[in-house]
Amino acid sequence: MIKLIKNYWFRRIVGSLVVLLVVLILNFFLFRIMPGDPVSTIIDPHFSPQAKQHLRAQFGLDLPLYQQFYLYVKSLVTFNFGQSFLSQKPVWEELRTRIPNTVFLLGTAFMLSALLGIWLGVKAAQKRGSALEKVVLLAGSISFSFPSFFVQLVLLMIFGWAIPIFPIRGSLSVPPPSGMAALWDFLWHMTLPIFSLVLLGFGSWAIYVRNLMIKTFSEDYILLARAKGLPENKILWGHAFRASLPPIVTMFLLALPGILSGAVITETVFSLHGVGKFLLDSILGHDYPAAGAAFYLLAIITIICNLTADFAYGLVDPRIRLGRKME
Amino acid sequence: MKRILRRFSFWLLIGFILAGIWGPKCFKSSAETQVASPFSMPLWVKKDTSPTMSLALEPKREHVQFEWNWEAPPNITIWGTAKFEKETSASLILENPNGETILLAQNEGNTFLAVDVDGRDMSFKMGLGLSPFDDPMKELFPTKGRYTIKLWPPDLKIKSGAINIRIEGSRWGLLGTDQRGRDVFHLFLLGIRISLLVGISATLLATLLGVSVGLVAGYAGGLVDTVLMRIVDVLLAIPGLPILMVLAGIWGKGLWQLVVILSIFSWMGTARTIRSLTLSLRESTFVEGLRALGAKPSYIMFRHLLPESLPILLANIALGVPSAILAEAGLSFLGLSDPRIISWGRMLNEAHGFGAFTTGAWWLILPPGIGISLICLAFLDLGRTLEEMADPRLKGGANK
Amino acid sequence: MIHIQRLSVSYKTERGQVPALKNINLSIPKGTATAIVGESGSGKSTLLHSIMRLLPPEAELSGKIMFEDMDITSMDDAALRSFRWRKCSLVLQGAMSSFNPVLSIGKQIAETVAYHLHLSSKDSYKRAEELLEMVGLPTFFSKRFPHELSGGQKQRAAIAMALACSPPCILADEPTTALDVITQAEIVWLLKEITRKNNMTLCMVTHDLPLALSVCDRIAVMHRGEIVEIQKPSGILNNPTHPHTKKLVKSIRSIEERGNPK
């Protein structure tokens, strides 16, 4: 039995490492098949051949491809991403200040929208045909068909221009306040971005959970739980919701890459100091070391989240916990 | 089929397609031309502010009359050349409601009258007898009422050419203008084309890829299946928009590159669906029977498995279009599309870049945003209807 | 013990009202084992669910169901909760799905005990283990999950759960379907033994007439939503009155004749 458990987790971890390897290879070749070579964007055509050669050597581009790849993997694994073309500062320095902001934005928005969506979904499944269910269905359609940047722009127009109670750009005021005031200022700047992400996100959660719960409600063990005379809340949360939990955790797994896309757009719309905006600026500015590093970082966050979700799934589903997956 | 025809979303979509094809053709000028001053509001709001008026003196139309019921406009521009039948002296005159006339331009006994006047020009102000710091508009438009612009002498006939007059205000057209004075309604209609084109072709391409992979994986099984499904897993685990951004940034921003990039990262769902369908069909007795009859795998796949999965496939396509449209709009919004291609995402990108939300220029934000949302909703609704038709069990769950 | 008077149930569907039970009158005396026999769709499960008030919201019920001196049809939610399981418990068909797959067997039995008998969590787990022993399962099964049990073991656990509050009456809805023949017999005898020992009333729904004949004191035959005949097993076997009962009896006769050619 222990062997089986190991087997399942072992396979999950190996799977994640394969994804990581693919991302590394993609990253390596994507930034090398672009027109010209990486230095051509910063090389002035008037540079002397010696100067060009020197620059190439500086970026390691004169080495054979396999050696380049080795050096590249080594640098990424040690988080040594080199210098940004644009700011001439180490990329890691630039990224480091941005990671907490992005993690806070995404984490808070994701948790809030998931919690709200799950709660509404459960309630909608319990009261079929109620007004609440109609609201859930509508919110679901909105989150599947309204572009996030549009909704965010409209929110900005309402709360930044028509009723100016929230800031229209940035993660902090200029000049930034200090001490506790800085925290409040940060939260004040984050309110609208997080609100917009929750507004767009909870609908799909609610629909998903509602459909799952409706299916679960038709199971015999729910009928039996009712026959056992258990109170309604215990049937709803202790049995029906508990039984639907494993697929909900899977949904976490599938939704995480999507929310990273949300980071890029949200940070762009609200001009926030985050990894997503950094990726966009680097791509638009042809700053390939920075773009590569930001993409690599986003991919790593996704992979870690996926793996965590896998472990969490194991915790809520006894069939997985014991190392046997029934499909 | 009848059920589809009864859906409002179907007719909405038809409307969008027709508007996308014929709408832009109703405009004489290209969408890039400046039609009014930048950030003009739509005509139908704030009726107490002055609108932009475009007038022209043409053959058989030697004078124009218009009602002016607002404050003096910020500017007037007059340009163009009118040719006459014979050599004559001609002048362009503005007559205000009080019956006073003001000379706007004149020639010195020629066969034509060429005008190029901007209300802010120094020479124009001097010609009116004003100092360079005065506002000539107060002089030209002293009161509300009926104004006439005409040629003098009155019997003059224009043979060819035209003199264009634009009185600039802060309102224009159905949906106003953007930061470059372009007609937002025209841009909106052009945006339909890009959304539909990219959305549908990317989805079709992705479906083609997904169906091929799914059929091969499901039918071949074994190692081929395992390898293909691992590829699907890996692709699903890569964050979508970031990789699209990187690819769009590196590979160029053309329309077809965008279609290819979008489809490369959206075929996985279809592949999984088709694979599981193929797997269940492969085990079914009728396929077993066909195999016993000696049918080749390719024959079974294309003559039996594919038609069998067609309804689900159609629903999948309809449900896939919204995500392709949203992805295209997202990339354009981030500035990763060709700036020469007018799309809804690009319109929102420019609206964001020029701070439309800080000035309350809602007519730059709402039309493209609502356009995207409506098209996506229409496709979603259509997809769900098709899905219910393919699998009637879904319907029972939806309205029980 | 249970008196059903003029009970009718119909379901609201898109095509209008569909009757499931028509004017049922049935009395189940205390301490007896009654079988309700009929083919699928005859309304026997609906009858059982009406006694527990488990019908879906689209079902419409009229008539009266008395349990001892309580009117079940007019109970409010609180009364219903204390009636269910403490007075009358249920064993479902297809043991596969009568346990929640993500909770351990012990937990599912113990939560019922804890709720109805107001026991502490530790005591209720102890009680769950005793119950499992009572139905012939080892006590460590309380830590097991439903998917780790065989069909027969699950059905035993389901019976253990039904005994949780020692109710005076147990209803069983096709307790033996989806089990192999040997396990079927074991389960039915277990039910019979336990109810007899504890002087409980048993009401079992089944489509298996031979099984019903061998364990029950009285047989009620259902056909198209109506009870067409109630008799002792010997009566059903020897002089069935209703044509449908005759057909049923004839069908087992013919199987027996084929089985024992003489």
Q: Strand sequence of the main sheet of chain B, in spatial order?
A: 1-8-3-6
State Rg of chain B.
Answer: 31 Å
The helix-and-strand class of chain C reads alpha/beta
CATH class designation of the largest domain in chain B = Mainly Alpha
Outline type of chain C: globular
Number of helices of chain B: 15
CATH class wording of chain C: Alpha Beta
Total strand segments of chain C = 10
Uncertain runs of chain B with pLDDT below 50, 5 residues or more? Answer: 396-400
Strand content of chain C: 25-35%
Explained architecture:
The complex is a heterotrimer of chains A (327), B (400) and C (262). Chain A has helices at 2-30, 49-58, 65-77, 91-126, 131-145, 148-162, 180-217, 220-227, 232-269, 275-284, 288-316, 318-321. Chain A has 327 residues and is an all-alpha fold. Chain B has 400 residues and is α+β, with helices and mostly antiparallel strands. In chain B, helix 5 runs parallel beside helix 14. Chain C has helices spanning 44-51, 77-83, 105-117, 121-134, 151-162, 181-197, 209-215, 233-238, 243-259, and strands at residues 2-13, 16-28, 33-37, 59-67, 70-71, 88-91, 169-173, 201-206, 218-223, 226-231. In chain C, the strands form two sheets. In chain C, strands 6-7-8-3-9-10 form a six-stranded mixed β-sheet, with helices on both faces. In chain C, strand 4 (59-67) and strand 5 (70-71) form a beta hairpin. In chain C, helix 3 (105-117) crosses helix 4. The longest helix of chain C has 17 residues, at 181-197. Chain C is globular. Chains A and B meet through helix 1, helix 5, helix 6, helix 9 and helix 10 of A and helix 6, helix 7, helix 11, helix 12 and helix 13 of B.
Layout of strands and helices, then pairs:
The complex is a heterotrimer of chains A (327), B (400) and C (262).
Chain A: H1 2-30, H2 49-58, H3 65-77, H4 91-126, H5 131-145, H6 148-162, H7 180-217, H8 220-227, H9 232-269, H10 275-284, H11 288-316, H12 318-321
Chain B: H1 2-5, H2 8-22, E1 53-57, E2 63-68, E3 75-88, E4 91-95, E5 101-106, E6 110-118, H3 122-127, H4 136-140, E7 145-152, E8 158-168, H5 184-220, H6 222-237, H7 240-251, H8 255-264, H9 268-282, H10 285-292, H11 297-333, H12 344-353, H13 356-359, H14 362-390, H15 393-398
Antiparallel strand pairs in B: 1-8, 2-7, 3-6, 3-8, 4-5, 4-7
Chain C: E1 2-13, E2 16-28, E3 33-37, H1 44-51, E4 59-67, E5 70-71, H2 77-83, E6 88-91, H3 105-117, H4 121-134, H5 151-162, E7 169-173, H6 181-197, E8 201-206, H7 209-215, E9 218-223, E10 226-231, H8 233-238, H9 243-259
Parallel strand pairs in C: 3-8, 3-9, 6-7, 7-8
Antiparallel strand pairs in C: 1-2, 1-4, 4-5, 9-10
